[in-house]
Design a protein that fits this description.
The chain is 28% helix and 20% strand. By secondary structure, the protein is α/β, with parallel strands linked by helices. The protein folds into 2 domains: 109 residues, 3-Layer(aba) Sandwich (Cobalt-precorrin-4 Transmethylase, domain 1); 117 residues, Tetrapyrrole methylase, C-terminal domain (Methyltransferase, Cobalt-precorrin-4 Transmethylase, Domain 2, 2-Layer Sandwich). The strands form 2 sheets. The protein has a 5-stranded parallel sheet, sandwiched between helices. The chain has a 5-stranded mixed sheet with strand order 6-7-10-8-9, with helices on both faces. Helix 2 packs parallel to helix 3 and helix 6 packs antiparallel against helix 7. The radius of gyration is 22 Å and the shape is globular. It starts with a strand and ends with a helix.
């Protein structure tokens, strides 16, 4: 039965591919991947008989041609995306083409570069009583943003922000964040190519971010994290608080907690 799987390959390291993703790549007749974004090691799971298509220079119309051939020849296709397909994956337009030609499809989640970046800096992004929300966004560039979505308005919330696809203009980004309400000394982290062999991490204050990014030469494949939660400590969640009860544990009394 002809089908395409949109598989999240993870942020970079080939061993961050999920077991499900590896299994489906192994079963595929055609594997489509982008060398510029996906580690070549992911292809080690492909069958020796599989057709490998490098898609970096292929427009959407060319991908549709491959999907049409899959329908005609009853092929299984593994369409491998970097990170997780649900975040800036350019997958929705492909799903629409699949629906148009009657090709069955399924999304297979992957480790997002957001998770990879958080692991690289060794931080939880949701700190109790400091930041319990993560705003995932980007600045406008060649692709515009909806009119009601802009960095300044998001910055006014003061929580953790994960900013994709914005390293090419760090000074404009920094200005938007400052004007939106983040103090100049807000903790900031810039993670370049999370989990790849050439991964680099910059930790700095927001007021230093633009200069540090320029000095490092990052213009793409860098995720920018900002917010007070990146530097917070000394708080704890209720999950492991002995005086907090939930469906799996009764709360200890003050005396019980002291005795333990």
């Amino acid at each position: 039965m002809a089908k395409v799987w949109f598989i999240g390959a993870g942020p970079g390291a080939p061993d961050l591919l999920t077991i499900r993703g590896a299994k489906l790549i192994a079963e595929a007749d055609v594997v489509i991947w982008a060398r510029s974004l996906v580690h070549e090691g992911v292809l080690e799971h492909a069958s020796p008989d599989a057709e490998i298509v490098e898609s970096t220079t292929i427009p959407l119309e060319g991908i549709r041609d491959l999907y049409e051939r899959a329908v005609l020849e009853d092929l299984k296709v593994a369409r491998v995306h970097s990170g997780d397909p649900s975040l800036y994956g350019a997958v929705n337009e492909q799903i629409e083409r699949c629906d148009e030609i009657g090709l069955e499809w399924e999304m297979v989640p992957g480790v997002s570069s957001l998770g990879g970046a958080a692991a690289a800096i060794g931080r939880e992004l949701t700190i109790p009583e400091v930041a319990q929300s993560v705003i995932v966004t980007r600045r406008p560039n060649r692709t515009p943003m909806p009119g009601n979505e802009d960095i300044k308005s998001f910055a006014a919330h003061g929580t953790t922000m994960a900013i994709f696809l914005s390293a090419a203009k760090p000074r404009a980004l920094q200005q938007d964040l400052l004007e939106g309400g983040y103090p100049p000394d807000t903790p900031c982290a810039v993670v370049y190519r999370a989990s790849w062999p050439d991964e680099e991490v910059i930790r700095c204050r927001l007021e230093e971010m633009a200069d540090r990014v320029r000095l490092a030469g990052f213009t793409r494949q860098a995720l920018i994290l900002v917010g007070p939660g990146l530097g917070a400590g000394g708080t704890r969640s209720h999950l492991y608080d002995p005086e907090f009860s939930h469906m799996f544990r009764k709360a200890e009394t003050g005396a019980d907690a002291a005795a333990s």
